[in-house]
Amino acid sequence: MYIKYNFKGVTMFCVQCEQTIRTPAGNGCSYAQGMCGKTAETSDLQDLLIASLQGLSAWALKAREYGIIDHEVDSFAPAPSSPP
């Protein structure tokens, strides 16, 4: 299902790149557009992507505890490497 959002005039809060504004009061771009040129929509979609991958990774680790390994999932959430 595709949902179209209207982000016109929406401000954002973003701390995703090296161009993030850093001040003594705090860090983050909070304008209609970030210092890097990223829009509020792009920032929100990147946050959603990261949250989705974190969830996928958490479930992949839990599945591994039960011996369930899905190589297709491994392409998005690789197995943790063994410590040296």
From TrEMBL:
EC main class here is: oxidoreductase
Q: Which InterPro entries match?
A: HCP/CODH, Prismane-like_sf, Prismane_a-bundle
Q: EC number(s) for this protein? A: 1.7.-.-
Q: Which domain of life is it from?
A: Bacteria
Q: Which GO terms describe its molecular function?
A: hydroxylamine reductase activity; peroxidase activity
Instruction: Read off the Pfam families from this record.
Output: Prismane (PF03063)
Keywords recorded for this protein, A-Z? Oxidoreductase
Which BP terms does GO give this entry? response to hydrogen peroxide
Signal peptide start-end: none
Protein name (record): Hydroxylamine reductase
Q: Which lineage is the organism of this entry classified under, starting from the top rank?
A: Bacteria, Pseudomonadati, Pseudomonadota, Gammaproteobacteria, Enterobacterales
The gene designation is hcp_2
